Amino acid sequence: MDCSYWFYTLLVLATVPPMVPNSALLAGAGALAASGGLSLPLLVLVTLTSAVLGDLVVFTVGRRARGRALGWLSRDARRRSMLEWVSDRIHRYGIPAVIAVRFVPTGRGVGGLTAGMVGYPMRRYLIGAGIAEALFVSYTVGLGYLGGRFVTGGGPASLLVGPAVSLLVAAIALGVQRRPGRRPERAAR
Prior knowledge:
Blueprint: H1 4-15, H2 23-34, H3 40-64, H4 66-74, H5 77-93, H6 95-101, H7 107-117, H8 122-151, H9 161-177
Helix pairs in contact: 1-3, 2-8, 3-7, 3-8, 5-6, 6-8
Family: Belongs to the DedA family.
Domain VTT: 20-145
Membrane topology: Multi-pass membrane protein
């Protein structure tokens, strides 16, 4: 039996639940695809499908636990204000908010639960979740794939792939944070 099937199974188990850190695994899978160990189209299909399935499960849990969860969240002013803030963004901005929350730490789980609890339409949620997961899977697997292609060339330059990608991502994040015209947020008083 081909051992790549076990790896695809591991990918499903790591991408369905929203609280499992899986970026390194996906990038590593991309590098394996670059070396021919995995099929790149199958890798993208499996991870994208399982991630969207996980988002749907979280959304459904939020929808079904709505009454109990809203009661629990309403007892604490901080939790209530956070729920109201996320709910307001989802209803105001719709699909772009669903996409954006995917890229906030723990946002995949919190965003899905909140969207389900506040009655956001499932179809619109799935469109946003699908776009967000497509972006996440393509850049995570893609970086691993490109790194794998670069590394298979060998030489000392291959040792610089990880640090170079990290510096590039950090520079982009810093640039977005400090772009002109953006007002810094004030601390809550």
